[in-house]
Every structure is written in structure tokens, then in C-alpha cells.
Design a protein that fits this description.
Blueprint (H helix, E strand, L loop, with lengths): L1 H12 L7 E12 L14 E10 L6 H5 L4 E10 L7 E12 L7 E14 L18 E17 L2 E13 L10 E14 L21 E13 L7 E14 L4 E12 L2 H11 L10 E13 L2 E12 L8 E10 L4 E10 L2 E12 L1
Antiparallel strand pairs: 1-2, 1-8, 2-3, 3-4, 4-5, 5-6, 6-7, 7-8, 9-10, 9-16, 10-11, 11-12, 12-13, 13-14, 14-15, 15-16
Length: 363
């Protein structure tokens, strides 16, 4: 594993030797969170790992940089030894953003780092070979992290250091079950190296955009779809579709409020209903694939991207699946004035139901 990390570090560094950026290497130590009693058999002691990231320093003073204190973006690699024969090891690749929490006028900074990407888990659930892994049902996962760092750059030449606290999450978004997910909280510390240092930008000199102009309400329609499996293990993967209509109002440069309604069509519901009627003595309709909901939400503007958060309620839900309350998290990319794409995850009381791919139109 040591050789793999060294090779990866070299591969990440070489393409950027003549660019502006910082490479960072952290070691971390922490604990898996037992958010469900079914995880007790899998969690066995503390975890450890290595976090390597390349962050690009922006050179253009765009409006996005002005409003967000000149954030940075880059790529990160995570190796995590889960210290469990049941769970094994995890390898992840992320696209990340770094936001500065203080003014960028010195070499000391507090940074909020967040990233999303893909992960590989060495020991997923297997009915015969690994039946105690109730957390993850497949090797290929979706992953995310959030880290809070204190960073000092150029302490000795171009070398600096950082330390902080991180939260790492793995889930397969109900493409396979079990899917309780894994959450790790860890402390980390390491070193950084800045290539071709440039003068540090003081974002306090920028002029903020005037938000006093009243913004209109826009209306949008989104079609989403994908495949998922119910919480019943080995019940099969089925397609689902969602049609959403909503209004949105921009309240300032950073935030847009949304409100709307949507119709859900899920092919897994009849089989789930039959299972519940047989095994749990419930009386659910076995031919209904429809649900309808209402929601409110928020979009955090990140240049042409937006980070979506929504809270919804199933107003029509004859086959009650986990909860009447649902949440949606994800990203929206505005391709032009009218057309946008989305990648979101919909969860019921923090348990993933599906990963959605969407195409929308704003009128």
C-alpha cells in the first residue's frame, strides 16, 4: 500500500509542476459511527488512513470568486483502513471545493473542504461469504466528505502544514442492499507544498454585487429517473421515474428558495408491498406504483452549479415505504438560460431510496 500511495502522489504532482496549486498529504485516525445497531458486528476498533489532495489556486477574479472569498477546487484521493475483516478497506476519488472561512490576507487560513466522488470497498455484503456486512451491498460506492482545516502555507520555503477534523461517508444509494452506509469521523494532520507561489488575494478589496433589485419567480419542470432496490435484500433492481414542477425565487447572490410538487412512479413498490403483506402481516395495495409529494428547498449558487437541499412530504403514499417525509440532496448544472441537468439522492429519514439523474427546463 505504501508504494501505491507514493506512485499516486507522484502522478498527481507531475502534471501540475508548472501550475499554481497546492498538494496536501494527511494521515488520519478516527472511529466509524454506529448509527444503526446492525453495524455492531462490523465495527471493530478505530480506523486509519491517508488523504491526498491537489487544489488549484484560481487566477481569475470572477464574480464567483468575489462572492465566495476566492474558493479553490481540485481532486482528492482517500485510502481508509476500516480495521474490520467484515468491512475491509475503502479507496475513494473525489472532486472537491475548498472555501476559506477567514480573509485571504495572510498565510494562516481556516478552510471548509467538501467533496463528492466514487469509492471502492474491498469487502461488500455477500449472502454466503460476508453476511455480517449490513452496511454496504456492493463494491462500487458513492462517497462524500467534509473537512475543517487549519492550514499554514510556506512555513519553510514552499512547505507548510495543516490539521483538522473530517467526516467521511460511503453509500451505494440503494442500487444494492443492504445500504445502511458508513460514516467515519476522524482527526487528521499533514504537510502541504505550494507550487510556484503567487501573491495571496485579499478578497476584502472586491465590490459586492447589488442585490436590491427585486427578483422574479421562475418556474421549472424536471424529469428524473434511475434504478434502485428496496430495503429487502436481493429483492431485485427496478426502474423509477419522477416528474417535478416547482417555482424558484432568488433572494440574494448565494441563495434561491424553491417550492413545488412531484409525482413518483416506482416499479419496486408492488414487490415490496407483497413481501410486507406476507412477512409482516400488513395490508398494503400490491398494484400501486404511484406516490405524490410536495416540497420546499434551497439552492446554494456555486457559479454554474447549485447545491440542492429539499424537504418533502408524501401527500399521497398508499404503500408507506419507510417514512412520509423525504429529503433530497445533490447538484444542479445550468447548461444555458433554460436547460439544466441534475444528479441528486433522495432519502427517507436519512436512509437512501435512490440516486436520480435529471433533465430540466426553466421557463
Amino acid at each position: 500500500m505504501k508504494n501505491i500511495i507514493i506512485v499516486l502522489l507522484c502522478c498527481m504532482a507531475v502534471p501540475f509542476m508548472h501550475s499554481q496549486g497546492v498538494i496536501q498529504v494527511d494521515g488520519f485516525y478516527g472511529q466509524l459511527l454506529e448509527h444503526d445497531k446492525k453495524l455492531a458486528d462490523a465495527i471493530d476498533g478505530n480506523i486509519s488512513g491517508v488523504f491526498i489532495s491537489w487544489t488549484d489556486i484560481p487566477g481569475k477574479n470572477k464574480a464567483f470568486n468575489q462572492h465566495y472569498n476566492t474558493p479553490e477546487k481540485g481532486w482528492s484521493f482517500l485510502y481508509e483502513n476500516l480495521n474490520s475483516e467484515i468491512l475491509g478497506k475503502a479507496y475513494s476519488l473525489f472532486r472537491h471545493y475548498s472555501f476559506y472561512l477567514n480573509k485571504r490576507n495572510n498565510r494562516n487560513s481556516f478552510k471548509l473542504n467538501t467533496g463528492f466522488g466514487l469509492a471502492y470497498l474491498s469487502n461488500p455484503y455477500d449472502e454466503t461469504l460476508n453476511p455480517l456486512n449490513h452496511a454496504i451491498g456492493s463494491s462500487l460506492l458513492f462517497a462524500g466528505f467534509i473537512k475543517l482545516d487549519y492550514q499554514r502555507i510556506q512555513v519553510i520555503g514552499n512547505w507548510g502544514f495543516q490539521t483538522g477534523l473530517g467526516l467521511y461517508h460511503y453509500s451505494n444509494a440503494a442500487l444494492n442492499n443492504p445500504n445502511l452506509g458508513l460514516n467515519t469521523i476522524a482527526v487528521h494532520a499533514g504537510i502541504n507544498y505550494q507550487f510556484h507561489p503567487t501573491p495571496i488575494i485579499n478578497s476584502a478589496t472586491y465590490n459586492k454585487e447589488n442585490n436590491s433589485e427585486k427578483q422574479p419567480i421562475y418556474y421549472s419542470i424536471v424529469f428524473r429517473g434511475g434504478i434502485n432496490e428496496s430495503k429487502i435484500i436481493n429483492s431485485g433492481r427496478y426502474s423509477f421515474y419522477t416528474l417535478s414542477g416547482y417555482g424558484s425565487k432568488k433572494i440574494n447572490w448565494f441563495s434561491t428558495i424553491t417550492f413545488g410538487t412531484e409525482l413518483f412512479y416506482a416499479n419496486f413498490l408492488p414487490r415490496y408491498a407483497r413481501y410486507q403483506n406476507t412477512q409482516e402481516n400488513e395490508n398494503l395495495p400490491v398494484n400501486n406504483k404511484l406516490r405524490a409529494g410536495v416540497f420546499i428547498g434551497h439552492e446554494l449558487q456555486l457559479d454554474r452549479f447549485s447545491f440542492i437541499t429539499q424537504l418533502g412530504y408524501y401527500a399521497y403514499n398508499p404503500v408507506n415505504y419507510i417514512s412520509n417525509v423525504y429529503e433530497r440532496l445533490g447538484f444542479k448544472h445550468q447548461l444555458n438560460k433554460h436547460i439544466f441537468t441534475e444528479v441528486t439522492i433522495r432519502v427517507n429519514l436519512f436512509r437512501a431510496e435512490n440516486l436520480e439523474f435529471g433533465l430540466g427546463y426553466r421557463f
